[in-house]
Amino acid sequence: xxKMDYTLGLEAGRAGRNWTATALTDRAKERTPEPxxxxxxxxxxxxxxxxxxxxxxxxxxSLIDAEQRLVKNRYFVIGADGDLTLSGEDNGPxxxxxxxxxxxxxxxxxxxxxxxxxxxxQGFAVRERFGCDLAFLLRVHRxxxxxxxxxxxxxxDPAKSCPCGLHGKTYGDCCKEKGRHALGNQxxxxxxxxxxxxxxxxxxxxxxxxxxxxxxxxxKVWHYPQQETFHQFLDALVIGTFGQEWFExxxxxxxxxxxxxxxxxxxxxxxxxxxxxxxxxxxxxxTLTGPAKxxxxxxxxxxxxxxxxxxxxxxxxxxxxxxxxQGARYELLVAAVFARAGFEIEWIDDTxxxxxxxxxxxTHKRTGKKVGVETKSRQRSGAMNxxxxxxxxTHRKGDVWDLYNKAIQQAPAGExxxxxxxxxNVPDSPEKGLPSYSNIPVDTFLWMKEIRDRLMxxxxxxxxxxxxxxxxxxxxxxxYGDNDSPSPAGMASFFPSANPRVSxxxxxxxxxxxxxFQTYDTVPRQI
Length: 527
Description:
The strands form five sheets. This protein has a six-stranded mixed beta sheet with strand order 15-16-17-18-19-20, with helices on both faces. Strands 6-5-9-8-7 form a five-stranded mixed beta sheet. A hairpin with a 2-residue loop joins strand 1 and strand 2. Helix content is 28%, strand content 22%.
């Protein structure tokens, strides 16, 4: 649990009632060794604001500042199959004192259980999906009683980086005293299934033995120094997937002839040479440029699709191919989001399939429903291995109708939903200060409005039910950013058909899918 630096309160005395701030932590006591007393509320409010701007934390802040409103918390228990069950709700400060790995004692002392905070989610998508401001995902464990005991936690140097890697702290300042179910301690005793930010599907954590971290991806055990981050592992996974020799051959080519993967990796290496400027628990410690973010997300997509299956050799070959890369990359992106949303992916082999067919069939593990998925990406000059240059004026267009017309021909047979994903490949992103992209009106972007209006015209004019259940437009074009500025943001829109052959409106699998698209660029620092 995060410690509060100060507690605020009222002190009664001969001069009336004065506001006080009492230091609780060592760092706060160094700043203010004695309790601070204020003559009036305005003086106390200034101290609160100035201190919070320096990162100090307060209990009772809402007594001073009316803007420090309480927010709704909801608590969800993670079941054996990954399902989330609401277990309670209350109100609390937005800057919660709880951290991942903390143990929340049971409300009933006789339950012989404890709940460990596995993730804390917040943001627009959380309000939409969970109906609260902060969603606490808890894993309940039995508390050992009687003569039986859990295996001991192996000794680990408290001065070293904590195995959990979530907060950038040493083991002694992070998980050491949080009990056997804290993630860092679980990693010392073995792997642990867990949910990660931006995902609704459980995966196994890494495992620590001595100074080595082990991670299992499909049928291979990866091992490397314990302190290395998950982002460093993703780089190794990309190289391992394509082969060191292929990368070396690519670097011998002129820059314009190198595959986008190699150019993105070069940009990431350059970013990591710079001093770190971020410490948010999920980043590399650096503000990523567009190409660097494109590489990190690419590696994360490869990870999700290789956890339990070998990636199809045909897909790897297309990713290596200079011209085929863009279409293969988008197919990989969409499939990886389906995997995070709790779907099983069934790739369809072009060499064996008869007739028209989608890219893959996805089965939602929570409901058992199947959906056919087709992906199309708009080619534009100067992007994703295509020659030429681009300008925002020529590229900000919703000209995707040849792709749409080809996509609807790939509808699967039978009565299963059919989703079409189209990447307009546009160098555009929300302006700073706007709300979450998922909450921005479509009319904000003329090219997106153009696509929406044309889809409505097509569906209104249709005399028969449409083969597609919905069209999803996703523009996650981080690679349009330069090598010096923060990455552009991503955006997406969901357009359900007005008269589909198979409707998906209100289906929980769509809500899961949209949530994972909204959090697509969330790549944990450690798993």
